[in-house]
């Protein structure tokens, strides 16, 4: 038997993110706010060239800029 998330064409990580968001939204106000803060992520990356680290960028900001650039 195939798992429901796999049959729906999702990855396991995506399934877990949706499940976690659903649980957070079902909590009472005070606990919900605390849980949402814990669920936030701030991912950063840097390109390396010739053994030197480039500028460190926020992944969400860089992704949004790349999407806007490709749409134009």
From TrEMBL:
GO BP: any one term: proton motive force-driven mitochondrial ATP synthesis
One GO term describing the cellular component: proton-transporting ATP synthase complex
Superkingdom, taxonomy of origin: Eukaryota
Gene Ontology MF annotations: proton-transporting ATP synthase activity, rotational mechanism
InterPro entries for the chain: ATP_synth_F1_esu_mt, ATP_synth_F1_esu_sf_mt
Matches recorded under Pfam families: ATP-synt_Eps (PF04627)
Similarity comment: Belongs to the eukaryotic ATPase epsilon family.
Protein name, UniProt field: Mitochondrial ATP synthase epsilon chain domain-containing protein
Species lineage: Eukaryota, Fungi, Dikarya, Ascomycota, Pezizomycotina
């Amino acid at each position: 038997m195939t798992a429901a998330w796999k049959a729906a064409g999702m990855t396991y990580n995506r399934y877990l993110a949706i499940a976690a968001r659903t649980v957070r939204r079902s909590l009472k106000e005070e606990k919900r706010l605390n849980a949402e803060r814990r669920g936030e992520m701030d991912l950063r990356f840097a390109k390396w060239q010739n053994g030197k680290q480039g500028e460190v960028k926020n992944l969400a900001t860089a992704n949004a800029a790349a999407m806007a650039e490709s749409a134009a």
